[in-house]
Amino acid sequence: MDAIARAWKTAVRTALPGPWRPGRVVGEVVLALLMGTFTALLEVVSGSGLAVPFGLGVAVLSVLRRGMPVTVLLAASAAAGWSGGPVLLLICAGWAAGARISRVWPLVGTFVLGWALFTVTGVLKDAASVSPKLVLGLSLGGFLVVAVLPALYARYRAQRRALLDALRERNDQLLRERVMVVHQARLRERHRIAQDMHDSLGHQLALISVHTGALEVDRTLSDRQREAVGVLRQAAVAAMRELREVVGVLHDESTAVPPAPGAAAAGPARGGVEGIDGLVESSRTAGAEVVLSREGERRPLPAAVDHAAYRIVQEALTNAHKHAPGAPIGVALRYEPDALVVEVTNTRTPELVGARAGAGQAVSGGQGLTGLRERVRLVGGMVHAGPTPEHGFRLAAVLPYEAAEGEKEGAAAAGGGDDWVFEGLPSAEEAGRKRRSPAMGCAIGVVGVGVVLLGLLVWGIVAFVDGTRDATVKKARYDRIQVGTAESEVLRELPSGDNLFTSDYKGTGPAVPEGATCRWYLLDGPPEASWNEQHVARFCFRDGVLVEKQEYVSKE
Question: What are phi and psi of 550, to 5 degrees?
């Protein structure tokens, strides 16, 4: 029982898909009543005797057209081919099928099968009185107008609605991506700010710490002055520690997004290669022994490469002051054929200075070398850092003269503005242009239907003229044919005939001779009859001989 109940619920949900809101329930009931009543009235007028079954069937099928569009269309096609009452149902069924059958070939197959049923039922009903060829042409034209055209328009509306929904979804996606990119750019800018704070302020605070460390061991100072210098040195160390913490927070919040290519070039280069002399001089003023050397022919550098060289020297000097105070430092700039080599080395720390400097612990955030490697990578270079065999330390970087392509294109990405141009992401208008318009396919379908209808119209006119000619006999020919002539000879004289034009005249006129078979024709030549009268010629045959010919006037 449970299986039967589940199957029944599934069938009901399939045949009557929801949601069934009160407004829809009222609309469907009213539509079913109207269509059933209209169908019943048409059947009563035509005298077919099928008013009740057709009326009830149309009312039920109109409710099922949404959930079962294929079944309803086929049933409506068969019923409309037999009688004209269900024509409204066929229109609604064509609309529902065009809107709800999404795949093209199943839709085409459904309508072809529907037209076949429409034609077959029409031929079965009217084959005795109308030429099957004429029924075929009329059924094709009628089916195209009544069923196919509504389906084309419904399909156009459904595809247009789907296209608009897709464009709205695409636009919402682009807006979400835009917000994400803006957020990422802000994180990249925070990373850049953190890097600059680390490189610039860290270097200056390291120099302050070195200066105060040197003053702290100066014997010319009094104890009070030495105590004040110690406080100053501790303040510098505390400021460096707090700076490291702030830089670490900014950097940690930005690690999810790598720095944008060329982000270093977003602002002007601070010093560059030309500013290295100032860094060396500042270190010498602090008491450090620094030797600067340049080799090779100097060449112009891109802004990002120039800035990276400056930051490398600045970071190396800062680390040397913190971790090896008093040790000699060598700074070398070598202009190789394809790259600039920046090298900073320091020897082993003098034990005496190291012991005196140990009063203040060096502060390190662990971000300096990481930031340098990322900065150099973005311009297409590489960095090496490590101890030397003499127990010193060496920091070397190879910087290409031509910045990487990403650096050339990327500076704008770090700006964080709201009016960026997102390359590779099409706008909603471009997406709409790239999508195939539903109007194109439906327009082609409408044009095709129009061409077929025009062809059927031309064919109908030609067929009507031919049928009229086949059903009409001239007065002179009628007079020339004599009673008693062989049937074969008479038939050679007469047109082939057409029941479409003469079927209404059968049974009219004088009584047919007993045992004879007759042929009726329109008679052309006698004086014109009134608007509701027609001259008819009748030829009756028996035993292969013309036994009677009659000319009479029939009222239509």
Answer: -130, 145
Q: Please, what are the averages of pLDDT over each run of 10 residues along the chain (556 residues)?
A: 80 82 89 91 84 90 90 92 88 92 88 91 70 71 88 88 90 90 78 70 73 72 75 72 64 47 40 85 82 91 87 86 84 92 84 43 57 81 88 90 55 40 45 55 71 73 76 88 90 83 79 89 73 82 91 78
pTM: 0.47
* 348 and 311 belong to one structural domain: yes
What residue numbers bound the domain in which 140 lies?
Answer: 13-175
One domain for residues 169 and 203:
no
In a domain, 445, yes or no: no
Q: Strand pairing of 339-346 and 393-400?
A: antiparallel
For residue 293, give the nearest of 311, 313, 307, 308 by alpha carbon: 313
Measured distance CA(162)–CA(501) in Å, rounded:
51
543: left (phi over 0), alpha (psi -120 to 50) or beta: left
Q: How would you classify the pairing of strands 545-555 and 533-542?
A: antiparallel
One domain, residues 85 and 226: no
**CATH number, domain containing residue 489:** 3.30.1450.10
Is 72 a member of any domain?
yes
Output the six-digit token pair for 338: 């394809």
Using alpha carbons, select from 304, 312, 314 the residue that is nearest to residue 278.
314
**Distance in angstroms (rounded) separating the CA atoms of residues 369 and 23:** 70
Q: What is the DSSP letter of 359?
A: T
Question: Which residue blocks in 83-103 are alpha helix, DSSP H?
Answer: 87-100
459 domain-assigned: no
Residue 89: closest CA among 123, 55, 45, 137: 55
Q: Distance between alpha carbon 114 and the CA centroid of its chain, in Å?
A: 33
